Structure to design on (525 residues):
């Protein structure tokens, strides 16, 4: 059979890429015969979305190179768990000089309908950089010599901290102020993810249900704290308010009920739903009941105007959906499902592992705050901002992590009062990479892939594209990056860079990207 034309066009790139990674794969395979690493090295994937001829060739060649390297890695360490995303939030907070903001990347413009979030990439094959250099071409260099000048870039501001660890050994390879507590911005979500998975497990699902009081005929829509609940016709794997309405109508018809008094229950959460930064397009009011993250437009991701009362809006939509099925409902009001009520129907979210991936890949603030509250509920804390923060801290301590200097005030990182250290962030990454903790694996598989997915989709146009996976963080004057990188000598490192005082967000992001790319490009010690 003749070769397909696309393969003929990229065969030279792929052959060069395979030659580049063959020495590392061979070396890893030999190592497997004599020793088993302490941690399974992650095997990454990239999204299959192709944006143009140049990217198409790059992706095809890189994927072939990844298969070669993955063969060696899997032989040495065994396959990674690959269970199991919103587009990047714009630089809106910086542009508007707000005190709180969100991650900034090249994604869907605010207020536009971009379709449902793409699934976060699960563990596949590592991409080798197609820059013409093979591992043999690079010289092992002390890591401090490589990172030192890059971290001194004035674009990063006047404060910076860094930590780099080998995920296979847990050994710290570099530390610059690794114990200094700085504002982490959205890298806070890494801690939220680890805490939620520890408290609830990767298979936990969030349930929204309806309950009927047989004595009064009151129908209660009970919020389960699932911000991904959707009223759209295409649920795209999320829990569907339409399905819940249809199933509820069927149950009511069986009871010969065609008119109901409709109420809604948000008592799963307590306290104020207003984030300390105040009303903000990056986050809805935090409540146990909302549909489509309370977006008041057709958007599916990024900053957007929000409903002022998400629960009431969701209940009103539910009433309309019941009407479509022949059930007349009264105007809904707040209530509480009592012990007398009987559940009529329920819908559930995707598993927590998938929610964590979406939260990290797309830097979903609504989902982050929901997971912080669910962590609080599971930990016996009040389901409010303070309780979520306390629960996250407690769960990290439970894992044996040092939280000295850390201070949580939310789950999303929008609060500028949050504090984390670079050392804690790399400890979190190392813990998620521990083969003895497979329940935490989605913390790694949810990290955006450089140049390809989420908040990194518009960054790393060459060099380390596909090699870096990292959670971004941006507030006014604050720029952070924490994640993993596959290096030239076949290792996988965890890194965290925290900076503050920058006046140009884009220049700071580019400086951070250069720093992470340097890790990918060297066989550093």
């Amino acid at each position: 059979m003749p070769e397909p034309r696309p393969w003929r066009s990229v065969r030279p790139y792929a052959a060069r890429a395979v030659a580049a990674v063959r020495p590392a794969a061979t070396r890893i395979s030999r190592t497997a015969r004599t020793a088993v690493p302490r941690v399974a090295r992650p095997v990454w994937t990239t999204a299959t979305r192709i944006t143009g001829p140049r990217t198409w060739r790059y992706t095809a060649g890189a994927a072939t190179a990844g298969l070669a390297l993955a063969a060696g890695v899997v032989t040495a360490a065994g396959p990674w768990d690959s269970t199991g995303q919103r587009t990047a939030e714009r630089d809106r907070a910086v542009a508007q000089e707000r005190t709180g903001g969100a991650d900034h990347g090249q994604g869907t413009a605010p207020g536009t309908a971009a379709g449902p979030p793409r699934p976060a990439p699960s563990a596949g094959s590592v991409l080798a950089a197609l820059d013409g250099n093979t591992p043999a071409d690079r010289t092992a260099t002390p890591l401090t010599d490589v990172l030192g000048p890059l971290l001194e870039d004035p674009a990063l501001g006047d404060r910076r901290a860094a930590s780099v660890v080998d995920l296979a050994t847990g050994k710290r390879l570099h530390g610059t102020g690794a114990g200094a507590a700085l504002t982490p911005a959205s890298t806070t979500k890494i801690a939220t993810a680890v805490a939620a998975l520890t408290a609830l497990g990767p298979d936990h699902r969030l349930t929204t249900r309806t309950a009927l009081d047989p004595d009064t005929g009151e129908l209660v829509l009970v919020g389960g704290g699932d911000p991904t609940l959707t009223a759209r016709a295409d649920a795209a794997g999320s829990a569907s308010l339409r399905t819940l309405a249809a199933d509820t109508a069927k149950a009511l018809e069986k009871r010969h009920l065609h008119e109901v008094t409709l109420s809604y229950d948000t008592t799963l959460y307590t306290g104020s739903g207003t984030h300390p930064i105040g009303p903000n397009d990056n986050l809805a009011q935090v409540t146990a009941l909302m549909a489509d993250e309370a977006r008041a437009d057709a958007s599916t991701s990024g900053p957007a105007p929000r409903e002022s009362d998400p629960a009431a809006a969701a209940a009103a939509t539910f009433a309309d959906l019941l009407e479509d099925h022949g059930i007349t409902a009264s105007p809904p009001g707040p209530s509480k499902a009592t012990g007398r009520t009987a559940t009529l129907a329920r819908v559930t979210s995707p598993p927590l592992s998938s929610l964590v991936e979406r939260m990290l890949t797309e830097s979903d603030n609504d989902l982050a705050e929901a997971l912080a509250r669910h962590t609080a509920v599971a930990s016996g804390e009040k389901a409010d901002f303070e309780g979520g923060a306390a629960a996250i801290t407690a769960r990290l301590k439970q894992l044996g992590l040092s939280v000295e200097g850390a201070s949580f005030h939310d789950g999303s990182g929008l609060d500028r009062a949050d504090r984390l250290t670079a050392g804690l962030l790399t400890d979190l990454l190392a813990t998620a990479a521990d083969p003895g903790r497979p329940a935490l694996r989605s913390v790694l598989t949810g990290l955006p892939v450089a140049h390809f997915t989420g908040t990194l989709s518009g960054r790393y146009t060459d060099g380390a594209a596909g090699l870096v996976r990292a959670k971004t963080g941006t507030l006014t004057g604050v720029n952070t990056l924490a994640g993993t990188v596959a290096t030239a000598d076949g290792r996988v490192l965890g890194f965290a860079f925290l900076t503050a005082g920058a006046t140009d967000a884009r220049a700071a992001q580019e400086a951070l990207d250069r720093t992470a790319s340097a890790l990918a490009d060297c066989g550093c010690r």
